């Protein structure tokens, strides 16, 4: 016989989050790691959120996966009463676990003349100093002002003015012993001349946000069964649950080499022969200006805040691109993102030559842990020349310089474990783009990605990954030819040439008003290190003048992925795809190869 005796544990909440960053010369801010987490202090310790957070840290290029990797440990706190007694709402305190707008630093700090040693208070929030009026929200500041004005406690100083507590001895000192290991210990020195304890207590008026209701811990027993000689027939079912415990989270990370200066020459089945000079820093900090030569020689200048900065020059025989961009996914450690870029682009298509000079500004907002919204302003000068003869009307009307200005709004749901090489999770995005000024058209687009880990070794590696991808788009009939939909090539429709899937007028591909594409891919590792993987896939879909599937296409094939750690790592992809269903005017291509992240 096999018996199971299960004792259900109590509910746990997240207490402190302690970040420990290692490396040869670590300079990354702890907020960079905290921004990537999907749980916050005070929330229920959700195993799924914790697992996803660890996966996202492991998939970030800022942290080294090979040397040390990501180590995340949970341990019950020795003093749960410290967290449980805090009456601070998530609106005023816990903002995604890394940027509280208001910390209860002043909460119930007694000053006693009988204290032999300084009173130490461990604040359950990492790496933050005492709040000032500039960091308090308007609501918290008003409550602070009202409290200090209305309460009549003796010798109460206003911590945000020059008013001092009258003492004969040196004034009390509030010391912040801050280190890079997330250990904030605030020490309040005793004042022997104070006759009675003085308390400052600032709390939020809003209730604590809880995942479950524990508001009736002290409720009396059920009055119906309290005096019954047979007791409560429902036993523990109607009684209040045990108060939640708290667990501290220790996260050990190893900083990766995030900067690179790369000179290379390559060839691509979609873009021909190219050369590239790339200066990129994926852990950039625009505010970390060097103050000495030592800052530059040690590599700490302009680094450490998780921003992305890139300058590239990519000349080629078919495509040339020059780009400078900067983005911050958590601007000023808030839920907002900001990105700016400027570029020059030149491309020789089969039917015309296209030049683009312009820039883009993007502002985003994290609405929940997984849902985000963004808006982007795009301004470009698009030059069209070298048109094919005979020239269709759609192409002839845009020959020369064209000013393109659009505003794009998008909603995205991202629950992938990695944005670059996901192994599980979901990504959904829907967008609308409106052109104004010289052109006026509307474009609607949507995309979906789903990843499943079908099999993995007991150590969690060696994953077999099934990926499903789909995209759909529609644009109005007055959209210029250079903004219409095209498919074909490694990134959209394998088995066809770049832009080889498109409606045609004469011999010119003019793009479509409607696009619907899908892909199913299965990937398995060949080596233990997973630096070589085999894939099998099928791509299908269509690009048409109007909404419909009259010209449906489908391909199937396989390929190999080589992951080169010394290149970033960047995968080299080789694919063979064979059209199963195609149209007479399509341009197919059996073999395709690509260097870089693709989707």
Describe what you observe in this structure.
The protein is mainly beta and 599 residues long. 8% of the residues lie in helices and 39% in strands. It is built from seven helices and 24 strands. It has helices at 30-35, 47-59, 80-84, 138-150, 223-226, 293-297, 393-396; strands spanning 12-22, 70-76, 119-122, 174-176, 185-188, 245-254, 259-268, 272-284, 307-314, 319-328, 336-348, 353-366, 371-385, 400-414, 425-436, 442-455, 464-475, 504-505, 508-509, 514-525, 532-544, 553-564, 570-581, 591-595. A hairpin with a 3-residue loop joins strand 7 and strand 8. The radius of gyration is 30 Å and the shape is globular. The two termini are 53 Å apart.
Order of strands, main sheet, comes to 7-8-9-10-11-12-13-14-15-16-17-20-21-22-23-24
> What's the mean pLDDT score?
76
Radius of gyration: 30 Å
Contiguous runs where pLDDT drops below 50 for at least 5 residues: 85-137, 151-226
Count of DSSP E strands?
Answer: 24
The major sheet is characterized as:
16 strands, antiparallel
How far the N terminus sits from the C terminus, by CA atoms, comes to 53 Å
> How many helices?
7
Class from helix and strand fractions: mainly beta
What fraction strand?
A: 35-45%
Write the layout of secondary structure elements.
Blueprint: E1 12-22, H1 30-35, H2 47-59, E2 70-76, H3 80-84, E3 119-122, H4 138-150, E4 174-176, E5 185-188, H5 223-226, E6 245-254, E7 259-268, E8 272-284, H6 293-297, E9 307-314, E10 319-328, E11 336-348, E12 353-366, E13 371-385, H7 393-396, E14 400-414, E15 425-436, E16 442-455, E17 464-475, E18 504-505, E19 508-509, E20 514-525, E21 532-544, E22 553-564, E23 570-581, E24 591-595
Parallel strand pairs: 1-6
Antiparallel strand pairs: 2-6, 3-5, 4-5, 7-8, 8-9, 9-10, 10-11, 11-12, 12-13, 13-14, 14-15, 15-16, 16-17, 17-20, 18-19, 20-21, 21-22, 22-23, 23-24
């Amino acid at each position: 016989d096999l018996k199971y005796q299960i004792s259900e544990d109590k509910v746990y909440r997240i207490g402190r989050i302690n970040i420990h960053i290692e490396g040869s010369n670590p300079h990354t801010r702890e907020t960079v790691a905290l921004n990537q987490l999907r749980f916050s202090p005070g929330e229920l310790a959700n195993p799924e959120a914790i697992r996803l957070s660890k996966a996202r840290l492991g998939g970030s290029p800022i942290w080294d996966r090979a040397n040390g990797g990501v180590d995340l440990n949970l341990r019950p706190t020795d003093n749960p009463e410290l967290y449980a007694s805090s009456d601070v709402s998530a609106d005023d305190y816990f903002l995604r676990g890394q940027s509280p707008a208001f910390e209860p630093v002043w909460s119930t700090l007694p000053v006693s003349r009988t204290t032999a040693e300084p009173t130490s208070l461990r604040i359950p929030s990492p790496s933050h100093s005492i709040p000032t009026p500039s960091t308090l929200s308007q609501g918290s500041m008003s409550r602070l002002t009202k409290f200090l004005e209305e309460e009549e406690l003796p010798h109460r100083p206003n911590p945000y003015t020059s008013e001092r507590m009258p003492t004969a001895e040196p004034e009390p000192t509030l010391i912040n012993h801050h280190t890079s290991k997330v250990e904030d210990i605030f020490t309040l020195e005793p004042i022997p001349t104070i006759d009675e304890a003085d308390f400052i207590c600032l709390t939020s008026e809003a209730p604590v946000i809880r995942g479950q209701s524990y508001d009736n811990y002290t409720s009396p027993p059920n009055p119906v069964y309290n005096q019954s000689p047979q007791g409560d027939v429902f036993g523990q079912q109607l009684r209040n649950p045990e108060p939640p415990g708290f667990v501290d989270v220790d996260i050990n990370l190893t900083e990766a080499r995030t900067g690179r200066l790369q000179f290379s020459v390559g060839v691509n089945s979609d873009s021909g022969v190219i050369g590239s000079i790339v200066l990129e820093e994926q852990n950039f900090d625009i505010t970390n200006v060097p103050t000495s030569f030592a800052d530059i020689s040690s590599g700490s200048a302009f680094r450490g805040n998780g921003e992305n900065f890139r300058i590239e020059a990519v000349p080629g025989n078919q495509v040339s691109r020059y780009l400078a961009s900067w983005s911050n996914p958590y601007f000023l450690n808030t839920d907002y993102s900001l990105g700016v870029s400027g570029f020059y682009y030149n491309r020789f298509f089969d039917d015309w030559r296209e030049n683009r000079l312009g820039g883009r500004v993007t502002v985003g907002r994290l609405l929940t842990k997984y849902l985000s919204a963004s808006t982007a302003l795009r301004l470009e000068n698009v030059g069209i020349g070298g048109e094919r003869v005979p020239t269709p009307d759609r192409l002839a009307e845009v020959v020369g310089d064209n000013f393109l200005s659009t505003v794009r709004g998008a909603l995205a749901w991202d629950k992938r474990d990695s944005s670059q090489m996901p192994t599980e999770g979901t990504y959904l995005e829907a967008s609308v783009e409106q052109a104004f000024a010289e052109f006026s058209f509307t474009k609607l687009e949507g995309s979906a990605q789903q990843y499943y880990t079908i099999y993995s070794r007991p150590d969690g590696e060696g994953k077999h990954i099934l990926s499903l991808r789909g995209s759909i788009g529609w644009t109005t009939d007055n959209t210029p030819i250079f903004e219409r939909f095209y498919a074909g090539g490694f990134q959209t429709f394998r088995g066809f040439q770049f832009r080889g899937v498109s409606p045609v007028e004469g011999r010119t591909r003019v793009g479509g008003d409607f696009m619907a594409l899908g892909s199913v891919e299965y990937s398995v590792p060949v080596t233990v290190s997973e630096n070589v993987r085999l894939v099998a896939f099928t791509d299908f879909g269509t690009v048409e003048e109007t909404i419909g599937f009259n010209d449906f296409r489908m391909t199937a094939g396989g390929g190999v992925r080589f992951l080169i750690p010394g290149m970033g790592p960047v995968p080299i992809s080789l694919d063979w795809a064979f059209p199963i269903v195609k149209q007479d005017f399509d341009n197919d291509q059996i073999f395709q190869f690509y260097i870089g992240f693709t989707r």
